[in-house]
Design goal:
By secondary structure, the chain is mainly α. It has one domain: Vanadium-containing Chloroperoxidase, domain 1 (Up-down Bundle), CATH 1.20.144. 71% of the residues lie in helices and 2% in strands. The chain is built from 8 helices and 2 strands. It has helices at residues 2-31, 40-48, 51-67, 71-95, 133-148, 150-169, 175-197, 201-209; strands at residues 115-116, 119-120. It has a two-stranded antiparallel sheet. Strand 1 and strand 2 form a beta hairpin. The protein is globular, with a radius of gyration of 18 Å.
Length: 210
Amino acid sequence: MIAFILLVVAGGLIILSFRADDWVQRQVFAANQGHWSHDPAVAAFSKYGDWPELMVVGVVGVFLARRLRSVRWQSILLMAMIASTLAGMTVNVSRLTTGRTRPRAAVEQGWYGPHHDGKWLIGQAEFNSFPSGHTATAVGFAGVILFAAPAWGIPAMIVALAVALSRILLGAHHPSDVVSAAVISFSIAWAVWGFLGKRGRVDATVRKYS
């Protein structure tokens, strides 16, 4: 029953986010004199909130936790890296094939699929908007921390949501891209934590090689 309720809530959030796309764009333009944001802080969150930077954070964190002999945090960070990677891979399957235009793209907005007008759109950044890869990797990483250590997970999730917001403010993604990615990656984080964390699989592996 709980799973069904969560599924309905997630579906409702995604539907509402699509309805909010145009309204949010108008608000961003109104706040930035008809343009997407050029705030350096927003750009920094966007630039440094993607998968490579998260993996660096994870590796450094695992190294420090190992030096401090913390099996728990080695496990949490390893699971966060796994969830982030799986989330990024999952959304990229859609992102590279749906052909949805980015809000800031200088083309007619729409969904063009993987092939349009005689050319492949896979890998063409202007047509790779749905869902948001940055959001997926950031929320996947933070989600595991939230489940495993809520006191640390809450600020981690705030940072992840700031990354997601930055993608909207810069015109890189529609709100529906971001919300859909967040729902997918949060689900993946929950599955990774449930399968590897609660059952102690990662803890056992870390202890074996410590």
